[in-house]
Amino acid sequence: MVARPPGFVAPPGPYWPPTAWAPPPPPPRRRGLAGGMIALVIVVAAVALMAAVPRQLSGNAVAAPGSAQRSEAGRPLNGAGTDPRAVAQLETNPLLADGVTLARVSCDLPALGREDAQLQGFYSALVSCLDQAWRPALDKVDEPRLPATVSVTLPKVSACGAAPSKEEAVAYYCGGDTTIYAPTDWMLSDAGLNRSRHLATIAHEYGHHVQRESGILAAAADKMSTPDQSSPGDQAIVRRIELQANCFGALFIASAIGQGSVSRAIGNAAVADYGRADDSVDHGSRAHQLSWAKAGFSGGTTAACNTWAAPADQVS
Is residue 160 part of a domain? Predict the structure, then answer.
């Protein structure tokens, strides 16, 4: 459920090969957002992005072609004839400026079920609601908002290359085709029919979509120095990406809670789900995974999610 940076179109050349982090040794196996890992996919040259919700909140970097042009150019979607563009900045990204808020939304979500069609319907309605909530924030700062899609079917190969395995992820985001992949059996084995966990997972993955559209992922990719994100500096960057996605996810939950299908009980449980993961070198401590979610839930603006401006001891 997490992702890596998108970027610029560059001449063909070496890319970062897929690498996966094995889940920590047992016991016990945690479920839900906490029990799933988040994987990120970065391509240095043709920056494409895959973010996954792995089984223990860990990372996965995959090189994938195809997303650079879309994230760089965007397209006018606000009806004003302008040309929104992603801004490859981190701490000073316009999306994180003071006063940028999400729209208050009422999500009308169908019942959750175990069939593909039932999950597809639930996720599609949720992503549509996420689009509505985030649209004014991206429009305000004139950054692109290409629509995200969701699929409960696992592709053999996507625009981000080979998909992670079931042992590595429960869901993932591919920036190359702006799609959240949440395979039915993966999600049900991890979250069952717990609506709050499904909500938290998809909201987190959509947070990576927002990072892609705004240019944050591209800027993060530019700062990375190792193909496998193994250096302390790169791991610190990945933590800031992941913690921000938690914050963005909870910021959305705050915009939807108490209306439509997102009751206060479901919304509060979804935020709490961000704090059920074990400590992780690339996702941060359990305490910080939850604290950044709470920051988004209570902060009310995107500025509350500026992990890039936070001191190192708050993103460890």
Answer: yes
